[in-house]
Design a protein that fits this description.
This protein has 319 residues and is α+β, with helices and mostly antiparallel strands. It is built from 8 helices and 12 strands. Strands 1, 2, 3, 4, 5, 6, 7, 8, 9 and 10 form a 10-stranded mixed beta sheet that branches. Strands 11-12 form a two-stranded antiparallel ribbon. The termini are far apart.
Length: 319
């Protein structure tokens, strides 16, 4: 599959060394970097939208860019200006906030693939609490959250399954192979109450002594606290999504023969050996197992019988 960046490089190849480095840095990688998010404001915004963008940016500030200027962009009508802006910032995720009479307190979450919009999800903010309204301690910069999805709506409707996948992509941009329970400090709970209502809550994890091996876990709400109502979506067709989810051949882990794992995760291996003839195998001889004579008696027993016969003959001669 030839991407748009490869086609553009063939049509307009870079002429300077700096231009070549910039183009090479934007080429697809076998292992992608952490995804960057940009936060944009529409032509008209409200105070609630500005506060939401600011607080969500604080969660993603370790890998996000806040655009302070207003942009007259309509993502669902014409997304080309938005794609160009994301290409300049080398970002693949965006949050767009706007406000008008038809769609008040509007938020659009989206992601791109190969320079084009992949998914867009539009919500309306129905309730919001600022971070400043919570008095608990704040989560440190770059803390990896534990995502909890509540509600069977994510499994019943395919569109909500894609929304669940998007929020996993949005909040967990760094992959981890192992987790330390002592380092688990941050929990984000996303609940689908109805087919069009989403509740987003953030909690701090406090571990206290319980008198047992496992500690007592207490969750303290720290914000962001959002109540969102789903308005409209623009999801990628199946063929484009298949290309976006394709794993490069170099990144695939080859299957090892004769190795399996059980339910507990223990590695089990099967060893194949050639047929062995036990009769021809060299065996170590024990000292106690001596060979028997042809008569069926051992040498020790034979010596004892001979000595007893001699004693009997001498007794008869004396008598």
């Amino acid at each position: 599959m030839t991407t748009n960046s490869e086609i553009a490089r063939k049509v307009n190849p870079p002429k300077t060394r700096k231009g070549k480095k910039i183009v090479e840095s934007r080429e697809p990688l076998i292992v992608e970097n952490d995804k960057k998010t940009i936060f944009l404001k529409g032509g008209n915004t409200s105070g609630i939208v500005n506060d939401v963008l600011t607080d969500v940016f604080k969660i993603r500030r370790h890998n996000g860019v806040m655009m302070n200027q207003n942009n007259a962009i309509l993502p669902f009508e014409d997304s080309s200006p938005l794609c160009e802006m994301m290409k300049k910032k080398d970002a693949s995720l965006f949050v767009f906030g706007s406000h008008n009479k038809k769609r008040p307190h509007n938020l659009v979450f989206g992601r791109t693939f190969d320079g084009h919009i992949l998914d867009m999800i539009e919500f309306g903010v129905t309730s919001f609490k600022k971070l400043s309204q919570f008095k608990s301690t704040k989560v440190p910069l770059g803390a990896k959250p534990c995502l909890i999805f509540n509600g069977d709506v994510f499994e019943k409707f395919p569109d909500w399954g894609i929304i669940q996948n998007f929020f996993c992509d949005f909040f967990c941009t760094t992959k981890t192979s192992s987790i330390n329970l002592q380092g688990l400090e941050y929990v984000i709970s996303i609940s689908a109450v109805e087919p069009d209502t989403l509740l987003l809550r953030s909690y701090e994890v406090n571990m206290k002594k319980s008198g047992a091996d496992s500690p007592y876990v207490e969750l303290v709400e720290i914000g962001v606290s959002l109540d969102l109502k789903l308005r409209r979506t623009q999801l990628a067709p199946p063929d484009i999504r298949k290309k976006a989810l394709k794993i490069p051949y170099a990144a695939k882990i080859g299957k090892t023969k004769n190795i399996t794992h059980d339910m507990a995760g223990t590695k089990l291996a099967t060893v194949h050996m050639t047929k062995q003839n036990i009769a021809e195998m060299p065996q170590s001889k024990m000292k106690g197992s001596k060979r028997k004579d042809d008569g069926g008696e051992s040498k020790v027993k034979k010596a004892k019988t001979e000595s007893s016969e001699v004693v009997e003959e001498q007794a008869m001669d004396t008598s």
